[in-house]
Amino acid sequence: MKRAISVLSDMSAEYVQRLDGSILAETLPVKTQTVLRLRASPLQHALLEAHYGRNGGGGGGNGFSVEAHQRRLSDRPQELFASVSKVAAQYAAGQVEEALAAAEGEAARAEEELRASQAIEEEAAPAAAAATAAAPGKGELEAGHALALALEQSAIFARFGFTDPATQRVPCAKAWAVLRAAAWCAEKKEKLIVFSASTATLDAVSRDLQAQFGWAPGRELYRIDGKVAADKRQAQIEAFNKPGCGAHAFLISLLAGGVGINLVAATRMLLLDTAWNPAHITQAVHRFYRLGQSRRTYVYRLLADGWLEDSSVYESATRKEKMALRVVDKKSLARREEVEEGASRHCPPPPREPDAPALAAWAEARGDPLLSSLLASADGDWCVAAKKRRTLRLVHASPTQAGGAGGARGPTGAGRRRGAQRAGAQRRRARIPGRGAGGGGRGGRRSGGGGDAAADDDAPRRRPAGAQDG
Fold first, then answer.
1. Which of 18, 51, 80, 241 is the most exposed place for a label (fewest CB within 10 A)?
2. Would you say residue 366 has pLDDT above 70?
3. Residue 381 confidence class, pLDDT cut points 50, 70, 90
4. Mean local confidence (pLDDT), 232-236
């Protein structure tokens, strides 16, 4: 597959002009991205362990079930608290059938929401339904499993002192970060964008902002998701971008509002979750880092430290970005830290341990007052670590490294063919005794002295000369 993509890219290179967001860096102010890894509470860890235990260490349930439960637990534990409390109350009242239906329905809704947030169609639904019908008792077994898990998690909430979802709030690091960032932006007259792939998470954030600050939808608070009509979207965008409108925050669904909108009035962005497809995150960032932006912009990616979205989803998306640049663009990669030129480039790396004062000092060295505020006031040491977003820098091979006239003129078909012919001839000469590289003759002259006769875009599968890994 990798070689086929490279061959296709070579064949279409003379007819396709590809541009990406890197061209904006020459004309726009600096964009800084920071990854914040947030510590889960002991309650959240206990709930997660219960889910893994019921699923045989995670292997007994499907991947969507595990990911959906982790996302719900890390982003909106209050919702889980309310649902399992309802199931436990029904079971205690002897309403076993109702409790079974409620537990199974909550689990199914979580998976359905995850699939919708990732634009995944349930192609296997008919087959799954047929398998359930062919296996008597399977549906009852799954419902019983969901009920047992809900009762166990309700007991865990009670053990930690949470018994009434109507009056008690479950602590959540991501909710705390959103409220803290919103308060800071409102005080400094800056506008905030909050992206999430889950509409349920956006619902929870909206409720928190309205309860904490009294913000009203359509006045201080705006929102775009798949249920908002196109004309209403444009009206909200224009109102949000209007100077002095009094708007503070814009909540946006990652898929429904990740493309086609312009929000250059904002300067701060929170990404509450990540996506398997890195293009979704890239498009979201370019809602305010685009032509028309006149101020420095900041992006904060919130990850649950050590959980699936950190160890699998985020790392997988980063690997996909690297592969696309290596295979499709045929660029060598080096690692760099996307920070402002000057003193901040030489600031020390962030501390590995959750030391709030040290983290705040590191953020201050970066020149980001909101980040300093978040890390200095990390109630309960929520933040485990903060680091500069590791971005990918393209390293173009120089004309001399690219090999001969073909490299100097660019990726023409004739240059590639001549380079491949010369490389093949050199390999054949190397197999003749006394005529290897550097052994005299025409082949020796080409390969001696540090030159690279085979670097003339030899073959799609070869790496460019001068390639380096960070």
1. 18
2. yes
3. low
4. 92
- 284 within a domain of the structure (yes/no): yes
Separation of alpha carbons 60 and 73, rounded Å? 19
* Under 8 Å between Cβ of 407 and 456: yes
**Mean pLDDT across the chain:** 73
Cα separation, 110 vs 380, in Å, equals 29
DSSP state for residue 462 in the 8-state scheme: S
What angle, rounded to 10 degrees, do the helices at 42-54 and 63-75 form? 160
Residues 136 and 192 in one domain: no
**What type of residue is 60?**
G
Cα 333 → chain centroid: 20
Instruction: Count up the domains in the chain and report the number.
Output: 3
Note whether 372 and 408 are same-domain residues: no
Asked if 384 and 358 touch (Cβ cutoff 8 Å), the reply is no
Give the pLDDT band of residue 247 (cuts 50, 70, 90).
Answer: very high
Residue 352 has pLDDT above 90, yes or no: no
Q: Are residues 289 and 367 in the same domain?
A: yes
Distance CA 182, CA 253 (A): 18
What residues make up the domain containing 94? 42-122+132-159
* Residue pointed to by tokens 């341990």: 353
For residues 304 and 263, membership in a common domain is answered with yes
Pairwise pLDDT comparison (347 vs 51), residue with the higher score: 51
Q: 417-424 long-range CB contacts below 8 Å, 24 or more apart?
A: 418/456, 419/454, 419/455, 419/456, 419/457, 419/458, 420/456, 420/457, 420/458, 420/459, 422/446, 422/453, 422/454, 422/456, 423/453, 423/454, 423/456, 423/458, 423/459
Task: Please determine, for residue 157, whether its predicted confidence score (pLDDT) is greater than 60.
Answer: yes
Same domain, 195 and 251: yes
Tokens of 332: 């060598």
d(CA 220, CA 213): 10
pLDDT tens, 71-89?
A: 888 999 999 999 999 999 9
The answer to whether residues 33 and 145 belong to one domain is no
Q: Is the dihedral of CA 236, 242, 244, 248 positive or negative?
A: positive
Within 10 angstroms of residue 188's Cβ, the number of other Cβ atoms is 12
Please give the average per-residue pLDDT across 248-277, as a whole number. 91
| Distant-in-sequence, close-in-space partners of 158: CB < 8 Å, separation ≥ 6 | none
- In this structure, the answer to whether residues 379 and 435 fall within a common structural domain is no
Highest mean pLDDT of the ranges 135-149, 150-164, 430-444: 150-164
E strands of 14-160, at which residues? 31-38
CATH number at residue 207: 3.40.50.300
